[in-house]
Amino acid sequence: MSPPNIGLQGPVRAALCTLTEDHISQLIREAVQVQRHCKRARIILPSDDATKVAGKDAKDRGPGIMKQRLHAEDINMALQWRGSEKIYATGTVGYPGKPNKAADTKVVLKEYLNSEMDLKPPQEVGLTVHWLAVDGVQPDIPQNPVANKAKRKAAVVHRIEDTEEDGDDNRDGVQVTQLLPRLLSEELQLYFSRITSAVERGGTTPLERQQQDAALKSLAQDPGLQELVPFMINYVTKNLYKHVGNPEHCRTLIRMAHSLLVNPHLHLELYLHQLLPAILTMVVAKKLSSKPWDNHWSLRSEAAQCLILACSFFGDNYATLKAKVLRSLCDAIGPDKALTTQYGGIVAVSLFGPKAINAFILPLALEYWNQWNDALARVNDLEKRTEIKMCQQAALNALYAFLGPENNQESPEALDLTWGDLEDTFGDSLVSMSALDEKEYSCCFV
Q1: Which of 94, 104, 315, 376 is most exposed by smallest CB count within 10 Å?
Q2: CA gap 314, 321 in Å, rounded
Q3: Contact (CB, 8 A) for 392 and 427
């Protein structure tokens, strides 16, 4: 091999030839290794001239000879190993030595652009915003995967009605909410099922009560549950309305709502319109129990505390929240309402503090107390008498919350009342804490 005469001196030319020869030899050896590992074989068809010399027709041409030849791709791979660029263009169609008709065909760019393409080009990357879920329910819009609205509702909520057993231990229907798997992870779905199952089992045994307390404590403290908030709120509200006649189960649901409210990692602002009406119903509903001896009074008190807690948390952000709740409670303590509704309204208003008691309860306390005493004198029904006494106790508690020593009230004259008026109306139910100082009072129910 002799390079062209480009004006190089003898020693330089000899050194350049030696380096080029060594480089090409090493490259071919590496390419042969690549070809041997790839096991690439080429079929070489005999040419027409060789067929004529052998005295055979073209159709009698042999099947060809299987030979292993070095391919341009082998050389490119060897160059790639050495960190060099490719020097051969591969991927051509046709046999070796024959022209590639597809490669020689000229393509008119305008005709190609005007012709219909079999494969459409991909669209540009964009962003579309739509509602995946609203309050835990997937809206019926084209962007959501499930198109059938009936199927979606069946997938979200599935009711299983338990058969009623004979006797007093009849069990109500249990509603099991199945979460959409594409909205929540498996861990959150498992967490939701554990919480709801603990709530639905109740607390009839010490072990069940312990498990229920642990579940509600976890719900009040654990972070990372914001995605479960719409499902939890939906579960609480629907079951509160469904189990109105079961005070014990409703108390558990109120505890669940209380745990959601006190959890510092959750944001419930978007769900107050759904949660607060359900809690308010547990406070002022006319009838919350199917049996007279059920303890629905505790349910009303706990629901009132949960309602006041929500107002204290979100009252600063929403200026009309407390006003709307107080308006509903004032309607509940009206004279035309049932005694159970009046009890819930008095308890809830008294929890707002002395100013709310002074504005809404005390103007009616004397009138209601006399009416309740008259009703006790002529009513013999035990259930009715219990309702009257519970209302009297709620009124006494509200009066003590206003006149108690911790509120530092000046005197009953702030209400345009005297101690004689209070003594004549309430009698021994309201007693003075000190014989010399008539500014501190205590109350008891006789």
Answers
A1: 104
A2: 8
A3: no
Residue 329 token pair: 């409670």
CA atoms of 202 and 442, how far apart (whole Å): 38
Contact predicate 318/276, CB 8 Å: no
Collapse the DSSP code of 106 into the 3-class scheme (helix H, G, I; strand E, B; otherwise coil) and give the result: coil
Domain count, the chain: 3
Bridge partner residues of 42 (DSSP): 67
Q: Is residue 80 located within the same domain as residue 176?
A: no
Alpha helix positions (H), 39-82: 48-53, 72-81
Contact between 269 and 317 (Cβ < 8 Å): yes
Contacts of 209 (CB under 8 A, 6+ apart): 203
Distance CA 239, CA 175 (A): 8
Give domain status of residue 363, yes or no.
yes
Are residues 324 and 377 both part of a single domain? no
- 199 and 323 share one domain: yes
User: Do 159 and 292 belong together in one domain?
Assistant: yes
- Residue reference for tokens 């160059």: 79
Burial class (CB in 10 A: 0-12, 13-18, 19+), 101: exposed
Whole-number Cα distances in Å, 198 to 3, 211, 296, 395, 398: 90, 7, 22, 36, 36
Same domain, yes or no: 335 and 357: no
**Whether 390 and 337 share a structural domain:** no
Predicted pLDDT at 424: 63
Mean pLDDT per 10-residue interval, the chain, length 446 residues: 60 86 87 80 58 52 63 83 72 48 68 68 76 77 61 43 41 49 78 92 83 92 91 93 90 94 92 93 89 86 94 90 93 91 93 88 84 88 90 87 62 52 64 44 46
- The whole-model pTM stands at 0.57
Lookup: tokens for 152: 């979606």
- Determine the Cα–Cα distance for residues 277 and 257; give it in Å rounded to an integer: 12
Q: Backbone phi, then psi, for 390, in 5-degree steps? A: -65, -35
What does the alpha-carbon distance between residue 286 and residue 343 come to, in Å, rounded to a whole number?
10
d(CA 312, CA 322): 8
Token couple for 86? 């490719």
Given 92, 123, 149, which residue is the final one in a domain?
Answer: 92
Contact 257, 236 (CB under 8 A): yes
Cα separation, 344 vs 303, whole angstroms: 9
Tokens of 401: 């919350």
Domain shared by 334 and 426, yes or no: no
For residue 66, give its domain range. Answer: 10-92
Judge contact between 356 and 326, C-beta under 8 A: yes
Residues 6+ apart with CB under 8 A from 242: 172, 173, 175
Is 379 part of a structural domain of the chain?
yes
